[in-house]
């Protein structure tokens, strides 16, 4: 069943990190609503399987782009390839991102530099490229994925939390700048979500990675999708996450940081 019912011309949504987790769920939501898709992921086989599923089930066109977004040239390559293929992007979903767990003085620098590239620099670069076109045409939507991590510092995931704080601040600022242009920016700030994120970040045994306390990827994506379509600027899925994001403004920052540190400790 389609989430929206408005008739419109065939539009295209570009989704990064689309072969699993929240990105995969976004792909299904856009496909079910009749969007053609450009799906970007570095895992070629998983991407091919996803595309085969979506094209068969929804009868849409899906263009795959196998790209490693930790490479600084990837955003320009994506933009150029789509221009050459005469594919106009109506909705940009900057979903790709990853984290890593551990003390900053012990974690791998190259991993963290790649994280900054994917989580923050690539988001900025792709937004810049596609936003210019959207403003010129007077329509378009951008959805950036941040996190409740954006609202406070995060010991044991220091760089990840910092990248998400950047995405939140960046998204809110440009959303304000774009008022009256016909282009909207939404930033989705989920809490812990059942996906492959925890395994990839080597944090499966931390207190916060309790599967019973997590929302599922499909629910998070649907809330984000509806918020995007309603032109909301900040979307925080779940009452508990909303309370968390709001309450940190009224608590001592040092105390909040200590609580976050405790949640990211390994379970005993």
| Total helical elements | 9
Low-confidence sequence ranges: 1-8
N-to-C terminal Cα separation, in Å? 45 Å
The ordered string of helix (H) and strand (E) elements is EHEHEHEHEHEEHEHEHH
Q: Using DSSP, what is the number of strands?
A: 9
Radius of gyration over alpha carbons? 18 Å
Q: How much helix is in the residues?
A: 40-55%
- Share in β-strands: 5-15%
Name the CATH architecture.
3-Layer(aba) Sandwich
Rounded average pLDDT: 89
Structure class: alpha/beta
CATH topology: Rossmann fold
CATH homologous superfamily annotation = NAD(P)-binding Rossmann-like Domain
Numbering strands along the chain, what is their spatial order in the largest sheet? Answer: 3-2-1-4-5-6-9
Largest sheet: 7 strands, parallel
Number of domains: 1
Would you kindly provide a written description of the structure presented here, covering whatever features stand out?
It is a single chain. α4 runs parallel beside α5. With 268 residues, the protein is α/β, with parallel strands linked by helices. It is built from nine helices and nine strands. β1, α1 (21-32) and β2 (36-41) form a beta-alpha-beta unit. The chain is globular and about 50 Å long. The protein has one domain (12-263): 3-Layer(aba) Sandwich (Rossmann fold). It has helices at 21-32, 44-58, 74-84, 109-137, 158-177, 197-200, 217-229, 239-247, 253-263, and strands at 12-16, 36-41, 62-66, 91-94, 140-145, 183-188, 193-194, 215-216, 234-235. The strands form two sheets. It has a seven-stranded parallel β-sheet with strand order 3-2-1-4-5-6-9, sandwiched between helices.
């Amino acid at each position: 069943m389609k989430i929206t019912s408005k008739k419109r011309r065939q539009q295209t949504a570009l989704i990064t990190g689309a072969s699993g987790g929240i990105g995969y769920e976004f792909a299904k939501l856009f496909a079910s609503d009749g969007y053609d898709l450009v799906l970007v992921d570095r895992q070629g086989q998983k991407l091919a399987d996803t595309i085969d599923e979506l094209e068969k089930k929804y009868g849409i066109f899906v263009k795959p782009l196998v790209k490693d977004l930790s490479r600084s040239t990837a955003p320009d390559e994506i933009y150029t390839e789509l221009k050459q293929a005469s594919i106009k992007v109506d909705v940009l979903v900057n979903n790709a991102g990853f984290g890593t767990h551990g003390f900053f003085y012990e974690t791998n620098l190259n991993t963290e530099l790649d994280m900054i590239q994917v989580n923050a620099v690539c988001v900025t670069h792709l937004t810049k490229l596609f936003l210019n076109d959207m403003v010129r045409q007077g329509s378009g939507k951008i959805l950036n994925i941040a996190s409740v991590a954006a609202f406070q510092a995060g010991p044991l995931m220091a760089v990840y939390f910092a990248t998400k704080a950047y995405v939140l601040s960046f998204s809110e600022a440009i959303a304000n700048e774009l008022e009256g242009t016909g282009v909207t920016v939404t930033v989705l700030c989920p809490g812990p979500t059942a996906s492959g994120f925890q395994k990839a970040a080597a944090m499966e045994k931390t207190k916060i990675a309790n599967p019973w306390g997590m929302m599922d990827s499909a629910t998070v994506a649907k809330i984000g999708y509806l918020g995007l379509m309603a032109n909301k600027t900040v979307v925080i899925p779940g009452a508990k996450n909303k309370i968390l994001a709001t309450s940190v403004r009224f608590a001592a920052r040092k105390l909040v940081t200590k609580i976050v540190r405790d949640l990211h400790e390994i379970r005993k």
